[in-house]
Amino acid sequence: MREGRLWLLHLIAGFLMFFLLGSHIFFMHMAGGEPLSVEETFARAKNIAFPLMYTIFVAAALYHGLYGLRGILFERFHTPFSQKVINWLLSFLGTVWFLYALATTWIPFFK
Amino acid sequence: MERKKRHYPNFPGVVGWIYGGNLNFERVLFLLHRITGLALIFYLFAHIIVVGFRAYSPQMWEMVMGRISGHANPVILFFEWLLVLAVIFHMFNGMRLIFLELGFFVGKPSRPVYPYRTSIDRQRIFTWIMMILASIFVIWSIFAFFMGGGSHA
């Protein structure tokens, strides 16, 4: 994919994260109640809106974060070979982490 | 035989985060954006592992939360709050960057007539507005974390 498109995706993911991460932080840490209790955690996991939202959230967060990390690494390692290694490494890391997050998000929903 | 030069002077690297360019307000924001961004991506990996424990069983979830929740340990609570600070700053500064990258709040192009105005002057009001909004949420987070208003206090 062209660099411009990757950058645009980074911006779109960042814009999405402003609302998704904002609401996550608000409801988990600032709104009160017991959002991390077993009852509330598993009640949320059974409501399809939450696994769906978290799937988009994790995809956006991993892409946005790893693209940012890629930019920082590219500033230090700027030969074409090292940049190719970084691209493959971060793509692999992001895919593995996304699949793990996907599994752990949807398993409680189907259990 | 002369060795090939491996360092490019126009790539200052990590140290250039600090010395590259003028150390003005936007530069400090840039530096903080990178530091918070790096902290958040590494935290995200750990967070995905911890949250993933709920896939095993409710008992496993309860045990993990009992050990690492801010309820259990004030030091963890403090680090959770630092994390929320990083998120708030990164979110509002990131939103500022998105708007500026897309050409909002930078003013219309004008002829370079003395006394010159840089686009930094025009964007700085927007920068301050975003930082004030971030500060409001920081104050709210202090209340939520340490004064009984949130989920962890």
Describe it.
- The complex is a heterodimer of chains A (111) and B (153).
- With 111 residues, chain A is an all-alpha fold.
- Chain A has one domain: 3 helical TM bundles of succinate and fumarate reductases (Up-down Bundle).
- Chain A has four helices and no strands.
- In chain A, α1 packs across α3 and α3 runs antiparallel to α4.
- The longest helix of chain A is centred in the last third of the chain and has 31 residues.
- Chain A is elongated.
- With 153 residues, chain B is mainly alpha-helical.
- Chain B has one domain: 3 helical TM bundles of succinate and fumarate reductases (Up-down Bundle), CATH 1.20.1300.10.
- The mean pLDDT of chain B is 85.
- Chains A and B meet through α1, α2, α3 and α4 of A and α2, α3, α4 and α5 of B.
Topology:
The complex is a heterodimer of chains A (111) and B (153).
Chain A: H1 3-30, H2 38-46, H3 49-76, H4 80-110
Chain B: H1 16-19, H2 25-52, H3 58-68, H4 74-101, H5 119-146
Which features would summarize this protein structure in a list?
heterodimer; A: 111 residues; mainly alpha; 3 helical TM bundles of succinate and fumarate reductases; 4 helices; B: 153 residues; 65% helix; 0% strand
Quickly count the helices of chain A. Answer: 4
Residue stretches of chain B low in confidence (pLDDT < 50, at least 5 long) are: none
CATH class of chain B: Mainly Alpha
Low-confidence residue ranges of chain A: none
Total number of helices of chain B: 5
Query: Could you report the average pLDDT of chain A, rounded to the nearest whole number?
Result: 91
Largest sheet of chain A: none
Number of domains of chain B: 1
Task: Compute the number of strand runs of chain A.
Answer: 0
Largest sheet of chain B: none
- Portion in helices of chain B: 55-70%
From the coordinates shown, what is the CATH architecture of chain B? Up-down Bundle
Q: Give the terminus-to-terminus CA distance of chain A.
A: 38 Å
Q: Tell me the strand percentage band of chain A.
A: under 5%
User: What string, H for helix and E for strand, traces the elements of chain A in order?
Assistant: HHHH
Strand content of chain B: under 5%
General shape of chain B: elongated
Rg of chain B, Å, rounded: 22 Å
Q: Which class of secondary structure composition applies to the elements of chain B?
A: mainly alpha
Helical proportion of chain A?
over 70%
